[in-house]
Write a structure and sequence with these properties.
Blueprint (H helix, E strand, L loop, with lengths): L1 E2 L8 E4 L9 E4 L15 H19 L2 H14 L3 H7 L1 H13 L2 E6 L4 H11 L13 E5 L14 H12 L3 E4 L3 H16 L22 E5 L5 E6 L2 E2 L2 E4 L1 E4 L4 H21 L3 E4 L8 H10 L2 E9 L1
Parallel strand pairs: 4-13, 10-12
Antiparallel strand pairs: 1-2, 2-3, 5-12, 5-13, 6-7, 7-8, 8-11, 9-10
Helix pairs in contact: 2-4, 3-4, 6-8
Length: 310
């Protein structure tokens, strides 16, 4: 028989034999202290490693390509010159400079003997921010796949596919514009739409687009009734093309949706020509944020481009 001897407290157990409870064998049970919880948390070396990993992740995110695009959007929203914004926000400016250094680097070998090559050379080598060559600080580039069908694949192109279907349901079509008379008529229509645009960010009172007639890749988006909705003109040279003109000629849901269908058609035309990179001719620090959002939706990303004569 086993019982706890209350006279000795709960810290002892009495082992009794037979009918002699007055002669117990007492076995002491040592008190076990409760488990100690270290309020300081993990050991110091582990905490330091976790802090270092956290800061590295934050630094990587702050100097990544999307963060640089967001920085340019902030500069455009604030107005003024990018240089002034850098001085007023030195930490964000330093992160933007680091992000530029981390951007992918592309090399463009361009011919000065072709109209398209000269146009691209002029764009990519003209002075950019801080008097550096335009392409050195990062410009928006769309990679063109060798198989044009690959452009619309994947989760990243879900919005493109949806907008393309919406445009097609409206009866919108995109086709090349090769006839000189039709080109001249479309150019006149584009100039009128640009001068009368309701948003002053996209309005130009006296647009000068006469150089468009020098280039041969013209695409037009047309409504079901044949009315022109969008004009696209793209200089090309070798593996490079420039988004010289890509504007809607009005404002409506059909005009908005046709931009995605026209982008898909432009990628197909460029891929057939062997073009692998399409560059935006406006620096991201000057690009209206509405256009920035659209370009990122269709796949443009920032990259540093070094151009040289072939």
């Amino acid at each position: 028989m086993t019982h706890v001897d209350e006279r000795r407290g709960a810290g002892a157990v009495s082992l009794c034999a037979g009918s002699r409870p007055d002669a117990p064998l007492t076995v002491p049970i040592p008190d076990v202290p409760p488990a100690r919880v270290d309020a300081a948390g993990p050991p110091l070396p582990q905490r330091l490693r976790e802090t270092a990993r956290s800061w590295r992740a934050r630094l990587a995110a702050a100097t990544a390509e999307p963060a640089l695009s967001d920085f340019h959007a902030t500069v455009v929203t604030a107005g003024g010159r990018p240089r002034d914004h850098l001085w007023r926000h030195p930490v964000a400016g330093a992160a933007a400079v680091a992000a530029v250094v981390r951007l992918p680097r592309l090399s463009a070998s361009l011919s000065a003997d072709t109209v398209g090559g000269r146009a691209l050379l002029h764009t990519l080598t003209r002075p950019g921010p801080f008097r550096t060559p335009f392409g050195w600080t990062g410009v928006a580039v769309l990679d063109v796949p060798a198989d044009a069908a690959e452009y619309s694949l994947g989760a990243a192109r879900q919005t493109v596919r949806r907008k393309v279907r919406a445009a097609q349901k409206r009866g919108v079509t995109v086709r090349p514009v090769d006839d000189p008379a039709e080109r001249a008529a479309l150019l006149a229509r584009a100039n009128e739409a640009e001068a009368a645009h309701a948003d002053d960010r996209y309005r130009s009172e006296r647009p000068d687009n006469s150089d468009l007639l020098d280039h041969d890749l013209w695409l037009g988006a047309f409504a079901a009734d044949g009315a022109p909705l969008l004009l696209s003109v793209t200089p090309t040279d070798g593996e490079w093309g420039q988004l010289r003109y890509f504007r809607t000629l009005g404002s409506s849901p059909a005009h908005s949706d046709c931009r995605y269908l026209a982008t898909q058609a432009l990628v197909q035309a460029l891929s057939a020509r062997g073009v692998r990179h399409l560059v935006e001719g406006t620096h991201p620090a000057e690009l209206p944020n509405g256009l920035r959002h659209f370009q990122r939706m269709v796949g443009f990303r920032l990259a540093r481009v070094a151009a040289r004569r072939a």
